[in-house]
Amino acid sequence: MTHAACEAAARAWLERLPAADLLAAHARTDLRLAIWIGAGALLVGTCLVLARVDLGGRLRRAAEAGGLRLWLASGLSAVVVATMLAAAKGFYDVLVAWPAEAVGGSLAERAATAAAGVWSAAVLALLFAPPLQWLLRGRPRAGPLLAGLAAIAVCLTAGWGPYAFGGDPALAPAPPGPVNDGLVRLIAETSVPAHGVWLSRDPSLEADVTGGFGRANVVVGPHTLDWPAADARAYVGHLMGHYAHADVFIVFLLYGLAAFAAVLAVQRWAAPLARSLGARQATIAADPEAAPAAALILIVALGVATLATTGYLRWANVRADAFSLDHAREPLGLASALERTWDHDSVDPNPIEAAIFYSHPPLSARLAQAMCWKTTLRN
Ligand SMILES: [Zn+2]
Questions:
Q1: How far, in Å, from the CA of 236 to the mean position of ligand 1?
Q2: Beta-carbon count within 10 A of 27 CB
């Protein structure tokens, strides 16, 4: 079986989807990329302007005139920069991004959502910036390491914790039927440490496999009980692949490591970057004058973290599909489940779109993987 033959079989699956939907998905993904680039340019540009006009220096002088301490001026500077960035992004979302992406709601409703985002950015800056600046100022060597380790701990606790320790103990077992029978067999076939299949109360959930430390919860949504058993087995097999490979843990660890690297980068480069952008009084990263440059570094770090985690996930999702194929052995069920759960992103994006937005390989590639597995097995 050649690769071309797999792709031909995958194309036959794609042809089952309405051509108009495929075109609309392609256009939507192109638009998302344009909006993403616009938002990035706006945020970077705002940081450059704030550094150029030396917002931090102005705040320091105003604070000193009012008898405020340096650490208060630094914290204030970080909060003002975060609020201005969030406000710029909020305007952009309300006026450009959300109308173009046809996000529902009146202008007033969209503005209220954006305002809530500005408010939470200010609160987050207020909570995290003063302790970080205090550490960078008072403990220039150990401070960044302590802050980085704390960032990893926060990412794992807030992100992976609910996945590993969550699970609603009040759920009822899934009712008997072909889907339940198929999944109970799948649990035995994969050796995933789950005991039975549970029924979610969330009608929008297709299925979920969560847990950690030798315990797994397999949950299906009410509508999934009406799927063909092969589709449900293939879909849950994919989720079991993520469980077996600890992918959720790894993703949140990657976020924590990215935050660690960002703190080190801020400590090392925020002050020189601020000086080169026009804020000449910046001497260390914790100075008020360095806040716009520190924000710029954090924005770039967030972009890099996004590329790293989506890149890892695209690779991990090939592995999760392979786990499903090898254990559930339902290639047609997998292709059918992929079509059912298609998110209406382009099935064939360009490499930049794939790198930024695609946590799973594009639909065409996933269908080809399933069809190649099927034909290789048959030959
Ligand atoms: Zn996945």
A1: 10
A2: 11
